[in-house]
Design goal:
With about 950 residues, the protein is α+β, with helices and mostly antiparallel strands. The chain contains 28 helices and 37 strands. The strands form ten sheets. The chain has an eight-stranded mixed beta sheet with strand order 6-5-9-3-2-12-15-14, with no helix packed on it. A five-stranded mixed beta sheet has the order 17-18-19-21-20, covered by helices on one side. The protein has a four-stranded antiparallel beta sheet with strand order 10-11-16-13, with no helix packed on it. A hairpin with a 4-residue loop joins β32 and β33.
């Protein structure tokens, strides 16, 4: 079997790792009707015992053997009624030999007595120890994907739905919560027994149990309990973080056309949780790291999005259940899209559009740097490998495209139909397509074939030109993901076939709304070939062009418009994503005009996300003048913009930048994240090569102070200081500080940041220090905590020595977690690639960085010269052009016009050492000539200057004509 899904010429790594194979749901001996767990926890010994009773209704007679998933469970006995059954358990599955074969549709109840000591997965014990004496005592479960088998015997796949009960005995001071409703509680000596019952069917992976000394915060929706459980003392944080839940339940009940279906909704925040959240039926578990203090809530909407995501799963995932893991995008994509829908509801369309852009970017990053895969695939090693950005973020994008195709009214009608028709049932992708067709009559198989059942997306390049004589706009669209072939059409299997709206925007009338969608004239075109040109008759030249109006489709796009069009789009396009695309394209053109335009946007753009994006683009222009534009953004009222500005300034490695950032670190900021970004950027500047930078001693002193004094929410600020230290790659003192914070007893968030940073700092350390880093990571790799293992893999994956591979492979072999195993395997491949770097390559990198810095200085001086140059009188300049010399920062140019009724670009004649030599183009050589250039008529004396001016448009740097700047922004004639 091939391990690729697509043409290897596209250079995308395969998703399938060695050992991947097709996975299918097992044969079904019958329908599981009910599961009852009766457990006694022994928290000090991290163990439990009890009975799992499973009622199963056989689908056929004569079944004499049942196979259940049961990993590392100590099976004591198996009974049907009072009759003992023979069984065999190999640590992976439980084989039960039935004393009497089944009779079709006559249910039997199998009671399995078992115990577990220190479970590897599924059920987790958390408690204080000598290193972390303040850690709370808690027990919690995590079933998805196939981890329920680690804490009770079951048919552990999502295709079996059953009702459930959990009765659990715990120490009296603790509270136990599970799915459904609390049936009863009973004291038993020093213990207490809680009995919970879930009367609606659900899969085993959604069965849950959480135990702890929680504070309960009571809320409600339509009479149903909506409660939040947090560690005592954090009640205010709990209300702040989850308090919008009733409002969200109301919103999603209407959006899905189905009222919240379960008797309660609880959210339990637990310590050391291995995910952000888990949507167990009626009882979501959340990491306590999502709890926000007042300062963190200033610029952190991540918790709100997490709450919305897990709540949406109560419909998509819990009410409507996937039949097989390969279709998990149905639930994860919708839950991710609900983050967008909630953002739209709570914060407006611009914020929602930007959130959607973030979803697309996250998927695109994985597609370009990790692997490409179909969203629906049953080929993997473990199902957890499917839980990636293709599943979540690309899934959200697919739902957004479905909405774009149908329109809002039909989209929600289709979603209502899908939920109502499949409530309390299992579904596959085809069921969503059928619901859409049933509700709307639309067949969207074409969309699913392109985005769901195959990997990838279109990469568009869009060029525009205007013919003033005929008043025609020409737009050429190229799908650059398609490899060109001899007939020019490319490989048809790589081409996307979509109907894209193209908009031609006009400047608003005076005093009108600057961003009125009515100022856009829209045409819809079918883009289905590698390259297509479209012509549009318009009454007047548009100010800007908007590709994919509203940005509904998942894609990348490169805009090849003129500077004037990009500036107009940045100012007038009503879609913030289109404005962001324009900012990116403008920055790529570079030059002082781009810096000025983007700096103005950073000051005046009303939407925070565009300002934040512009900050990142300003610094990429790499002109000294960008600093002046950026530094004003440090006073922006929105902390998210200030953070983006700080991150951008960190790329300008000068002492002036360092002083601006140091001021933030010393004086503080309202935002944790801004302070953290400033601390990180200070280290980045110190780790750079340029002479104009602070000394390592200065920066170390500042970062040590941050580490000493800035304890706070989730250790965000101190983790920023660790990140800064990691950028000081040649500093042994920085390494020693990082190593110190990898010690047990360091607050977990800070410790994990330090572990990850060991990989970053390793690339500049001596051989002796490199061995110290490897030794420490090898020690840490033996720890069993999931997040520690992940951090070790991240650190090792950044290293440039093959010695890291041995540690990674050892970790992959010993970990019980498939996510860690896959990450370690991918890290091995990165290290193998990184290890090819040697001293010579590093030296070349340093030299290239210096060349870039020198070039930036030169370009900055040239831009200043342009700004200061005064135009010469027309009569004198024509005389100057009798001896034409053109110089750029890299070479001197000479040009020779071709006079044949049409004009083409000038060809370079020579690069002259002496820029004031005598390579001349005397204008009188063309006496009695006249030249027609599109829409203009010239005599020979002005023609040469005009042609030079046109040629200058294609250059990244300005041209100088005998000391006078000549480029298209300041015409020579």
């Amino acid at each position: 079997m091939s391990h690729t899904y697509f043409d290897s010429e596209n250079s995308h790594k395969s998703f399938e790792m060695p050992g991947a194979r097709p996975h299918y749901n097992p044969d079904r001996p019958g329908q599981v009707e009910h599961i009852f767990l009766d457990l006694v926890l022994d928290i000090p010994k991290q163990s439990f015992r009890g009975t799992c009773s499973i009622r199963i209704n056989p689908v056929r007679s004569g079944i004499d053997k049942l196979t259940l998933d049961a990993v590392n469970l100590n099976i004591k006995s198996v009974k049907v009624g009072e009759t003992e059954q023979n069984f065999d358990s190999d640590g992976e599955v439980l084989q039960i030999q039935l004393h009497e074969p089944t009779t079709a549709y006559e249910p039997i109840t199998i009671a399995i007595a078992y115990s577990v000591e220190k479970p590897q997965r599924g059920l987790y014990f958390v408690g204080p120890d000598k290193h972390y004496p303040d850690k709370p005592t808690q027990v919690w479960t995590q079933g998805e994907d196939e981890d329920s088998r680690f804490w009770f015997p079951c048919f552990d796949y999502p295709g079996q739905l059953a009702t459930s009960e959990i009765r659990v005995q715990v120490p009296r001071q603790l509270f136990a919560i599970s799915n459904g409703e609390l049936v009863s509680t009973k004291n038993d000596g020093d213990d207490k027994i809680y009995h919970w019952s879930q009367t609606q069917i659900h899969p085993t992976y959604l069965m849950t149990l959480a135990v702890g000394d929680f504070a309960e915060i009571k809320d409600e929706w339509n009479g149903k309990p909506v409660n939040y459980y947090v560690e005592k003392g954090r009640e205010a944080d709990g209300k702040r973080s989850m308090g919008k839940t009733p409002k969200m339940i109301e919103f999603f009940s209407k959006a899905f056309g189905y009222p919240y279906p379960f008797p309660k909704y609880a959210q339990v925040c637990v310590d050391d949780f291995i995910f952000g959240g888990m949507e167990n039926t009626s009882t979501t578990l959340l990491t306590d790291r999502c709890l926000l203090d007042e300062r963190a809530s200033l610029d952190n909407r991540g918790t709100e999005s997490l709450v919305a995501h897990e709540l949406a799963h109560q419909w998509f995932g819990d009410l409507v259940v996937i039949k097989h893991w390969s279709h998990a995008w149905i639930k994860e994509g919708m839950a991710s899209y609900c983050e967008v829908l909630w953002t739209d509801k709570e914060y407006g369309k611009e914020d929602a559009a930007y959130y959607m852009l973030g979803e697309a970017r996250n998927y695109l990053a994985e597609d370009s740097s990790r692997y490409r895969r179909p969203m629906v695939t049953h080929v993997y090693r473990e199902a957890i490998e499917l839980y990636d950005r293709h599943l979540y973020e690309k899934g959200a994008c697919v739902y957004h495209m479905i909405r774009a195709e149908l329109g809002d009214e039909l989209f929600y009608k289709a979603i209502h139909t899908f939920v109502r028709d499949n409530a309390h049932q299992t579904v596959e992708t085809i069921d969503l397509l059928r619901a859409i067709e049933k509700a709307t009559g639309r067949n969207l198989t074409f969309l699913f074939d392109q985005y769901v059942y195959r990997g990838g997306h279109p990469d568009y390049k869009v060029a525009y030109s205007w013919d003033g004589d005929s008043k025609l706009a020409k737009v050429t669209i190229t799908q650059t993901q398609v490899k060109d072939n001899k007939n020019g059409n490319g490989n048809s299997k790589d081409v996307f076939d979509l109907k894209i709206p193209l908009g031609f925007g006009y400047k608003p009338e005076k005093d009108a709304d600057e961003r009125n969608a009515a100022n856009i004239k829209t045409f819809t075109v079918r883009v289905h070939e590698r390259e297509q040109s479209f012509y549009f008759p318009l009454e007047e030249k548009p100010a800007y062009i908007s590709f994919d109006v509203g940005n509904k489709y998942l894609k990348t796009v490169a805009l090849e418009y003129g500077v004037a069009e990009l500036k107009a789009q940045l100012q007038f396009d009503p879609d913030p994503v289109s404005r962001i695309y324009a900012a990116h394209a403008l920055a790529k053109k570079g030059g002082l005009e781009a810096v000025k335009a983007l700096s103005e946007v950073l000051k005046k753009e009303p939407f925070w996300a565009v300002r934040a994006e512009v900050a990142g683009q300003l610094v990429d222009i790499k002109l000294d003048q960008a600093f002046d534009g950026l530094v004003t953004g440090l006073k922006d009222k929105d902390a998210r913009v200030r953070r983006a500005v700080v991150n951008a300034l960190g790329k300008i490695k000068t002492h002036e930048t360092y002083k601006a950032l140091r001021s933030i670190v010393e004086k503080g900021d309202d935002s944790y994240y801004v302070e953290a970004a400033a601390a990180s950027a200070m280290g980045s500047i110190a780790g750079a090569n340029p002479d104009e930078k602070p000394t390592d001693e200065q920066v170390l002193k500042e970062l040590k102070l941050v580490l000493k004094e800035r304890e706070g929410w989730n250790e965000v600020v101190r983790s920023g200081a660790i990140s800064g230290l990691a950028q000081m790659k040649t500093s042994e003192d920085a390494l020693n500080l990082i190593l110190k914070y990898t010690a047990v007893g360091t607050p977990q968030a800070l410790r994990l940041a330090a572990i990850r940073s060991l990989g970053t700092i390793s690339t500049g350390q001596t051989k002796l220090n490199l061995e110290r880093i490897l030794h420490r990571l090898a020690e840490l790799s033996k720890e069993t905590f999931f997040l520690t293992q992940v951090s070790v893999v991240v650190g090792l994956g950044q290293m440039e020595t093959r010695k890291a591979i041995r540690i990674l492979r050892s970790l992959a072999d010993q970990t019980p977690d498939g996510r860690v195993r896959m990450m370690a395997d991918e890290a091995v491949q990165r290290v193998q690639k990184n290890a090819g770097s040697d001293a010579a390559v590093k030296q070349l990198r340093e030299e290239l960085d210096q060349v870039k810095k020198d070039n930036q200085d030169l370009k900055s001086r040239m831009e200043n010269l342009e700004a200061k140059a005064r135009p010469l009188p027309r009569r004198k300049r024509i005389g100057v052009m009798n001896s034409l010399i053109l110089i750029s920062p890299s070479k001197t140019w000479g040009f020779q016009p071709i006079l044949s009724g049409k004009v083409r670009r000038y060809e370079t004649v020579a690069a002259i050492e002496d820029c004031f030599g005598r390579r001349t183009l005397p204008a009188n050589s063309y006496n009695n000539s006249s030249i027609r250039y599109p829409g203009r008529h010239f005599t020979s004396s002005t023609a040469a200057i005009y042609f030079v001016d046109e040629f200058a448009k294609s250059l990244e740097t300005p041209l100088v004509v005998l000391g006078a700047v000549c480029d298209w922004r300041s015409p020579c004639y």
